[in-house]
Each structure stands twice: as structure tokens, then as C-alpha cells.
Specification:
The protein is an alpha+beta fold. The chain folds into two domains: 138 residues, no CATH class; 109 residues, no CATH class. Helix content is 51%, strand content 13%. The longest helix has 32 residues. 27% of the residues are buried.
């Protein structure tokens, strides 16, 4: 008999073998395999996150860019100048308010920020505050003179600077969020399907006797779908697509094994 983990991978090849080899691993090995399969699914997400150069700020700060209305865009275009990452403005007021919040352009002495969402474009950085709390402090890098010409260019530049200056935290958050989604999906599939199979233990129609062998069998069935989902992710597919592919193939795998074995040790069909 092959040692772990080779005995697990050998169980992935051949539908009958996937069913028959459901009693080989210990609980520790089963738990380790579960973590391994979830981690395998995260590889494409980690690679895609590492290749990002920007990420939308309004994903984290709700409606942050709704404050940038037409009046703000005109003020930037006609009065503001960005040179050597320093913002100056010819408009001494430079304060714009709308239903979404407040935009302040240029440095203001003794400025008191209110409770509403505020984008304060100071000389060297953009401060985003709400209810007296600072949500972001972004130094001007990608935000240049061209970015001040339109709302679309400005929002892209703000998001890029924010992402580059907080890359580690944002990337970690994205990977952990993906890991949470994969874990929920994995738990739903593995534990849910195992429990349903375990309910058949008293039936004479099937050969499942313990929850452990049910869970082992489900892990065997999840192996190839997870690997195929990984390959799809490496080719640039999104997280929802990876999960969808994994789930569909898992169900298909179960159906084929049932057709081949009827979930009975002594009733394998040719």
C-alpha cells in the first residue's frame, strides 16, 4: 500500500477505486487533506491578486466617488494644478457639498471635518473621513494633472494610489475573503454530502457504515474537481467560475460513481 499522500492521489484515478479506497486515511490525514484541497483552490486567487496594479476604492469605502460630481470635476479642471505630487488651486473656497458628502480641494487652515463622508484633497495627500474617523490617507503618485481632467481618470488614479500604498493589507484581505468563501463551499459540499450518505448506514442497499468513510469518500470525489478548478483559475477564470466548475464536476463525479458501483462493495458493474 502506498504511503500518504500518494495513496490519496491514487484514489482519484478510477471511479471504482475512488469508492473502494474510502477507509485508508486516519482522521488527521482527512483533516489535513481537507485543508490541502482548500489551499489548492486559493492558488489562482493568490496569483491573480499578486498581479493586480489597482483595486476600486469604493469597494471598501461605500459611495466614495459619488461625491465627485460635475462641479468638483470643473473645479479641478479649471483651477487645480498637480506638479511634483503637490496640489495647488486658484480657487480659495474649493468646498463642494452634495447629497453623498463633501469634497474639499486645496489646503485649508484650521479646517474642521464634519461627520459626513469627506474627500479632502490637501497639498500632498488625499484624506477620506467619515464621522470623524480617517478611512484613508493617500499620497499623490498616480494622481497627476491628466487625472484631474475627468471623474473617470481621477477615480482610477485614486484607486491605484490607494491600492499601491496598502497593497499588502488589501491583498491579504482579498485572499482571506476568497479562503472564507472556498471554506464555506467546501464545508457545505463535504459535510453536507457526507451526512446524507451517513443517513444510509442502516440501509441494505449501500455499503456506508461510518461517517468517517462517508467523509473519506467525499474527499476522494472532490480531488479531481478541485484540481480542474485550479487549472481553470490558472487560466484566469474568476472565483465564482472556479467554485461553479468544482461543484458541477463534483456532482457529476458522484453520479458516475453511483452508476458504476451503486455504492455497494459487492456490486461493482462492468
Amino acid at each position: 500500500m502506498l504511503p500518504y499522500p500518494f495513496n490519496y492521489f491514487s484514489s482519484l484515478i478510477g471511479f471504482r477505486k475512488t469508492f473502494a479506497n474510502r477507509r485508508m486515511l486516519s482522521w488527521f490525514q482527512l483533516i489535513f487533506t481537507s485543508v490541502f484541497l482548500i489551499s489548492l483552490s486559493l492558488i489562482p486567487v493568490a496569483i491573480q491578486t499578486a498581479s493586480l496594479t489597482s483595486y476600486a476604492l469604493d469597494t471598501f469605502v461605500d459611495k466614495a466617488f459619488d461625491t465627485l460630481d460635475e462641479d468638483v470635476t470643473i473645479d479641478f479642471d479649471h483651477h487645480a494644478q498637480m506638479k511634483d505630487h503637490i496640489l495647488t488651486t486658484e480657487n480659495p473656497e474649493g468646498i463642494h457639498r452634495n447629497a453623498a458628502g463633501t469634497v474639499i480641494i486645496g489646503h485649508h487652515e484650521e479646517l474642521k471635518l464634519g461627520k459626513e463622508l469627506t474627500l479632502y484633497f490637501d497639498k500632498e495627500n488625499l484624506k477620506i473621513t467619515k464621522e470623524g474617523k480617517e478611512l484613508a490617507n493617500i499620497r499623490y503618485q498616480a494622481i497627476d494633472q491628466k487625472a484631474l481632467k475627468s471623474k473617470e481618470a481621477l477615480t482610477k488614479a485614486i484607486s491605484k494610489d490607494w491600492f499601491q500604498q496598502n497593497r499588502l493589507v488589501i491583498s491579504l484581505f482579498l485572499v482571506l475573503s476568497a479562503g472564507f468563501l472556498f471554506s464555506i463551499n467546501f464545508a457545505f459540499l463535504a459535510l453536507g454530502a457526507s451526512f446524507l450518505l451517513y443517513l444510509t448506514k442502516k440501509s441494505q442497499l449501500f455499503s456506508f457504515k461510518t461517517f468517517k468513510e462517508c467523509y473519506h469518500f467525499i474527499l476522494n470525489c472532490l480531488g479531481l474537481p478541485t484540481i480542474i478548478g485550479l487549472i481553470c483559475g490558472l487560466f484566469g477564470q474568476s472565483l465564482p467560475t472556479i467554485i461553479t466548475v468544482q461543484n458541477i464536476l463534483f456532482v457529476l463525479y458522484l453520479v458516475i460513481i453511483f452508476y458504476k458501483t451503486h455504492f455497494r462493495d459487492e456490486d461493482f458493474r462492468n
